[in-house]
Specification:
58% of the residues lie in helices and 0% in strands. It has 88 residues and is mostly helical. The chain has helices at residues 13-16, 31-39, 44-76, 81-85.
């Protein structure tokens, strides 16, 4: 009895390669473009609400950083804010 082997045909890497796209014809994806895409799917009221929440979260982050910095400066014995900023 003879045994025959069957070979599996695999595509070569040349077949899988996609042609390169012209980079000048593509729109660059910037944060502004992404924001406009997402903003276009929301109503103006939803957009204002999201912006307001983002602003207060950012303000809270900045205030907490300032508070932690002042607490750390107090622990080191720095009394004036000018010394904290390195002005004096």
């Amino acid at each position: 009895m003879s045994s025959t082997s069957s070979s599996t045909v695999r595509p070569s890497h040349k077949d899988l390669h996609q042609p390169a796209l012209d980079s000048s014809s593509r729109i660059p994806v910037t944060p502004a473009v992404l924001r406009s895409i997402f903003a276009s799917s929301r109503t103006p009221h939803e957009e204002r609400s999201i912006s307001r929440v983002a602003f207060f979260r950012f303000a809270g982050f900045i205030l907490s950083c300032l508070g932690i910095g002042l607490a750390a400066a107090r622990g080191r014995g720095i009394k004036s804010s000018a010394a904290l900023l390195g002005v004096v």
